[in-house]
UniProtKB/TrEMBL annotation:
InterPro entries: Acyl_CoA_acyltransferase, Asp_Glu_LeuTrfase, N-end_Aminoacyl_Trfase, N-end_Aminoacyl_Trfase_C, N-end_Aminoacyl_Trfase_N. It holds the Pfam family ATE_C. Belongs to the R-transferase family. Bpt subfamily. This is Aspartate/glutamate leucyltransferase. One of its GO terms (molecular function) is leucyl-tRNA--protein transferase activity. Keywords: Acyltransferase, Cytoplasm, Transferase. It comes from Natronospirillum operosum. It catalyses: N-terminal L-aspartyl-[protein] + L-leucyl-tRNA(Leu) = N-terminal L-leucyl-L-aspartyl-[protein] + tRNA(Leu) + H(+); N-terminal L-glutamyl-[protein] + L-leucyl-tRNA(Leu) = N-terminal L-leucyl-L-glutamyl-[protein] + tRNA(Leu) + H(+). GO terms for biological process: ubiquitin-dependent protein catabolic process via the N-end rule pathway.
Amino acid sequence: MRFFKTSPHDCSYLGDREASTVFVDPAVAVPPELYEKLNLIGFRRSGGHFYRPDCRACRKCQSLRVVVQEFQPRRRHRRVLKRATHLRWQAVPVHYEERYWTLYACYIEQRHGAGDMYPPNQEDFYRFLLQQTQYGFLLEAWDGDYLVLVAVVDRFTTSLSAVYTFFDPDFADLSPGTLAILRQIEICQELDLPYLYLGYWIDSVPNMNYKADFAPAEVYRNEHWQRLIRQG
């Protein structure tokens, strides 16, 4: 395989550091079985691109996965689940619908107006989340006839990977992001899959703390997976 590495640039998470990223050659076809092997060594997917941080002076970004068969919901997780018992869940093949775009655009405009995905672009949305149909499924949550959230989920032989979740900001009191992770953990348990991958985690970035709350978890550190032990 061929890989490319970006030049150093300002890190979007740690303002005092520079970041570099390794990408799989975009011209290389990545079938699901190869994607799974890349996932096991810390790569993530963004649309049709597969990447991993490769920063010379920093190893703060670590891929994190939940050990789902040992997972026990915390009190705050149980509160989230209790508030959402009226929702109806369904898993569907990856496909495009206009209501997905409408929901995504509303989510980006109201929740990520200062982010690099603002303003939302329909073509970018499709390429980012829905163009690659071979890797997984969409997880929908409905309140009656109203679509509350959509989670893009990749499926491997031993795990699921939480790719991205977008939701109606009017339902923020349901904690949709946390709720989507809890439902994916439940699916892993139902399918007897050992792990749910949650992407990269940096212990010093507050808005990433929620990932480590889904304990027990493992991080990919020094080229192997090891149990995450948090201090304090």
